[in-house]
Amino acid sequence: MSKLKPLSSSARRALIISLIQNGRVESQADLVEQLAENGIAVTQATASRDLDEIGVLRGRDATGYMRYQLTSASTPTARGFAELILSVEASGNLAVVRTPPGGAALLASTLDKASTSGTLTSVIGTIAGDDTVLVISRTANGGAGLAKELAKFSSSQAIKSSKKLAPKNVKGRK
Q1: Can you give the residue ranges of every domain in the chain?
Q2: What are 10-19's pLDDT values in tens digits?
Q3: Predicted model pTM
Q4: Which fold has domain 9-74?
Q5: Distance of alpha carbon 165 from alpha carbon 153, whole angstroms
Q6: What is the pLDDT of residues 83-127, one digit of tens each?
Q7: Domain 76-160, CATH 3.30.1360.40 — does that match?
Q8: What is the pLDDT of residues 45-61, one digit of tens each?
Q9: N-term to C-term CA, the chain
Q10: Contact 7, 84 (CB under 8 A)
Q11: How far is the C-alpha of 67 from the C-alpha of 159, rounded, in Å?
Q12: In the β-sheet with 94-98, what is the strand arrangement from edge to edge?
């Protein structure tokens, strides 16, 4: 088993949303176990606070099992994006999205799913680091529009449009 690591609360909550959407989380203990399987160590108390903060409800699903379910206010586009997008910059057909540490892969995965499902048609793909996601637009000059579209989901609404991503002058280079 991989080493358990801490994760920012917003990235952890985005993972919880993903676990609830893509699987069956029946109890807080079940959630703690599933997070541990993903390399995230949390206590039951932390899991409880996260579930409250996300705003999920526990009820019977279509098959009759009691499990946690997302409400419209806790879906990734309404909730996860707002917590994961700190800032967005655009250049040409690219948008660079800054996230809390550990949040980039979760955001990139959500964007990729939205793209393949037809919800976010302007995205052709993503590349994620630890706290940065490179989002590639389908059109040659679509970065600025894409940045504005992504920033709608952000709680900080920080958007920048730039001509270049590379620094103009880096000392020490010849």
Answers
A1: 9-74, 76-160
A2: 788 888 888 8
A3: 0.53
A4: Arc Repressor Mutant, subunit A (1.10.10)
A5: 23
A6: 788 899 999 999 999 988 888 888 888 888 778 777 778 899 999
A7: yes
A8: 999 998 888 778 888 87
A9: 46
A10: no
A11: 38
A12: 123-128, 132-137, 94-98, 87-91, 159-161
